[in-house]
Amino acid sequence: MATAEPFDGEPFDAVVLAGGQARRMGGADKPGERVGGRALIARVADAAGAARRLVIVGPPRPEPERAVFVREEPPGAGPVPALRAGLSEVSAPWVALLAGDLPFLRTDDVALLLAAARDANADGAVLLDDGGREQWLAGCWRTEGLRRALDAYEGASLRGLLGPLGPVRVTVRAGERPPWYDCDTPGELGHADRLAGPAGP
User: Fold this and answer.
1) Residue 39's closest CA among 58, 71, 63, 22?
2) Weakly modelled stretches of the chain, pLDDT under 70
3) Residues 6 or more apart from 126 whose CB is under 8 A from it?
4) How many Cβ atoms are within 10 Å of 85's Cβ, its own excluded?
């Protein structure tokens, strides 16, 4: 388990991928679905609240107000093209790369990822779930290293792009609301809503 002091170093931006087609949710506007009374995308934006700039790759929406919205071309082309589009708006030395459907991700989790990468002098850090699997859309990266990797990469897999960067693998004590929990189905969304409660954090 990686441990680190809270991140207080160089500034970071955040890129949130929120443009998927949500096929397993019947094509619903997944980032706009509500957990604990708040849209998923708003909850993720809160987790990235310390970011200097918040870039959301997906259709424009009223919230969060401070976000810059961009689209991959063509829309729905996949996570690697979406990352390319989002990274074009990043200028900070570090970038948090996050999914738009993580209702229980916290500011502390993002800070831990940034600090773990910095302390290890690594190009990035990625969150592990309770099965030890990397959650590639819950990580933080050195911007220049990520740009170089993207320039040289011709594949379509985030694992194929990010794995060779040798990120620090970070585990956290999750409890019943793990930060890697994502909402890919109506059942998962309903479960998250029950865990969060009517005004959950």
Assistant:
1) 63
2) 1-8, 20-27, 198-201
3) 113, 134, 135, 136, 138, 139, 162, 167, 168, 169, 170
4) 21
> Residue 119 has which token pair?
């302390």
| Extended beta strands in 8-67, E state | 12-17, 34-35, 38-39, 54-57
132 assigned to some structural domain? yes
Q: What are phi and psi for residue 134, nearest 5 degrees?
A: -65, 135
The interaxial angle of helices 79-87 and 143-152, nearest 10 deg, is 130
**Amino acid present at 83:** L
Domain holding 105, by residue range, is 12-194
Please tell me the predicted confidence (pLDDT) of residue 50: 96
**Rounded distance between C-alpha atoms, residue 189 and residue 165, angstroms:** 32
Strand order in the sheet with 68-70: 68-70, 54-57, 12-17, 94-99, 134-142, 124-128, 168-170
In a domain, 176, yes or no: yes
Q: Would you say residue 168 lies in a domain?
A: yes
pLDDT digits (tens, 9 = 90+) for 6-52: 456 789 999 999 976 656 555 678 889 999 999 999 999 999 999 99
Instruction: Tell me what pLDDT residue 75 has.
Output: 84
Distance CA 92, CA 53 (A): 8
